[in-house]
Amino acid sequence: MSIKIKGRPISKGYAEGTALVCREPIGFNFGVNVHNGIITEYNHELQNKSIKDKILIFPHGKGSTGGSYVVYQLARYKTGPRAIINLNTEVIIAIGAIMGGIPVVDNLEVNPFDVISDGDYVKVDAVNGIVEVIKRNEV
User: Fold this and answer.
1) 5-14 residue pLDDT tens
2) Could you list the residue ranges forming a coiled coil in this record (predicted)?
């Protein structure tokens, strides 16, 4: 059984894959290695973890406007997430995702942290603003 959640599409597209859930904001500028997709920010919840090919769920970005270019570079080098789900997407993440073609949905009708866990299979339809969650024990 899957859960379908309506949200607001930010960067159009479709992607699916395994969820990586992070309750901390992510600072892409100086916090993520664009060559391998590893989070490098010291003491971050995802430090030393890869965001490559994941459906990345986090509240919002943080840091300077250079983060937009890092998000774009992650897409260009194919080391970034397949899609992003935010509580609220700020302009830094939105611009980088749009430039890089990374689907983004935010403002889901339920808190994604309440229904999505690491390892769940997630389908993101960022054209219609639909997120479908298949719990990992049902995949």
Assistant:
1) 999 999 999 9
2) none
